[in-house]
Design brief:
single chain, alpha+beta, Thrombin, subunit H, 6-stranded antiparallel β-barrel, 20% helix
C-alpha cells in the first residue's frame, strides 16, 4: 500500500473500530432473521460474522445488548457496503454503514462500545 492509499483509508475511517469481547447477536428488524454476531463496532458502522448479505441492501438492524446496557435493544438503519465469504463452513463477514440512528440510541451504542469492546 502506498502513502496515498494509506491516507485515503485513514480519512475514510474517522471513527476507530472497536472489537467485541462477547458474542452479540444482530437481527433484521423487519424479518426478525438472525444476521450475525458483532465482530467490531464504531460510531459509523458494524461488522458482522454471519449470513450472506446483498451489497447495498438497506436494513434496520437490531443489536440485542440488554445483557450489557440498560434500555431497549439498539436499533438503527444501515446499508451493507461489502461482503466476503470467511470460511468453508459458509459464514460471511459483512460491513454495514450506519445511515440513521436517533440520539438516545447513539448514547446506548456508545455505552455498549465502552463495555464490550477492545481497541
Amino acid at each position: 500500500m502506498n502513502h496515498d492509499e494509506s491516507e485515503d483509508q485513514e480519512s475514510r475511517r474517522k471513527f476507530k473500530r472497536k472489537y467485541t469481547l462477547f458474542k452479540i447477536p444482530v437481527y433484521d428488524a423487519e424479518t426478525k432473521r438472525f444476521l450475525g454476531l458483532v465482530q467490531d463496532l464504531s460510531e459509523k458502522g458494524v461488522q458482522l460474522l454471519g449470513v450472506n448479505m446483498d451489497v447495498n441492501s438497506k436494513k434496520t438492524l437490531i443489536i440485542h445488548a440488554n445483557d450489557y446496557v440498560k434500555g431497549s435493544p439498539i436499533s438503527f438503519e444501515a446499508v451493507c457496503r461489502w461482503v466476503r465469504k470467511e470460511d468453508p463452513q459458509g459464514y460471511y463477514i459483512s460491513g454495514f454503514e450506519i445511515t440513521y440512528m436517533p440520539e438516545d440510541t447513539r448514547r446506548n451504542l456508545m455505552s455498549l462500545m465502552e463495555y464490550v469492546t477492545l481497541e
